[in-house]
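Here's what a typical entry looks like (Egg protein):
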Amino acid sequence: MKTAFVFLGLLLMIVAAVANGSGCCDHAITMFEKKMETLVMELKSSCRTPPVASSCQELHKKDPSLHSGVYELVFGLQKLPVYCHIGNFGCGDGGWTPVMKIDGKKLTFVYDSGFWSNKTVFNSEGGMTGFDQKETMLPSYWSTPLSKICLGMMIHGKVNYVVINKSASSLHSLIADGVYRATSLGRDKWKSLIGSEASLQRNCNKEGFNPVPETWRKTRIGYVANQENNCDTCDSYVGFDSKGDMSCGNYASYDADNGDRRTTTMGYILVQ
Ligand SMILES: *[C@@H]1O[C@H](CO)[C@@H](O)[C@H](O)[C@H]1NC(C)=O
Ligand SMILES: *[C@@H]1O[C@H](CO)[C@@H](O)[C@H](O)[C@H]1NC(C)=O
Ligand SMILES: *[C@@H]1O[C@H](CO)[C@@H](O)[C@H](O)[C@H]1NC(C)=O
């Protein structure tokens, strides 16, 4: 790199001297010098290697000047370029590591999909872009420790977010065993992922990871409800994946508070 800068400096001097000699105005020289300085600065910053990190939050802490973008992260023995979201896009400050992107219309990540437990990467290219339509499951699911989970659902082109405060060795450790782990966001907060169209039945009302592992409309992360005063046959949920014909969004039938719904959304899961 050093030789390149020396060369650039030399080039700058020669050009300046020639321009001077040929009576070219000082203004042109100054402009040229400024352009060269900018070029050198850009070269310097693109040559700086980002720190080695295993999460976007670690990357952000090691170098707070980094912006959102694609960075190579180390997941155990695996290195993978992922899109790090840095700064507050709706879930608070810091560096957010993407974990999953779920297309509610597809069945890739339905409740019984092996992906929730078998530690298999799905479409890693989807992890290199932001809040778009590409599905992905990244190794951050089983290898990134977390203290916060950011959930987003895209509806009518806008993403709504909620944050769960929860510490764990990984998201996999909270989900893969199928055990119920409660959260306490509340019904309205879960509905806010969908907005005014959200609909849920009035009973059962369980939320978290694997709320009600055995029911009709079950979910890995979300809120489930029923019209009967028990959780045996829930026909409504807001959540990430479900049993049946959709995998993310809001489903509601049988006396739900805002009518029958089958709203599929893109779902985004990130951790910090
Ligand atoms: C431009 O020419 C003048 C005299 O003609 C000289 O004093 C000056 O050092 C020259 N500047 C450059 C950048 O070569
Ligand atoms: C994990 O589960 C998914 C979905 O069922 C499947 O496509 C994939 O091959 C499985 N991976 C392994 C290693 O069994
Ligand atoms: C989560 O923790 C943050 C502070 O880290 C706090 O501001 C926020 O209110 C908490 N959210 C919930 C739902 O408890």
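Residues 16-17, 20 surround 2-acetamido-2-deoxy-beta-D-glucopyranose (ligand 1) (CB under 6 Å).

More examples are in the samples folder.
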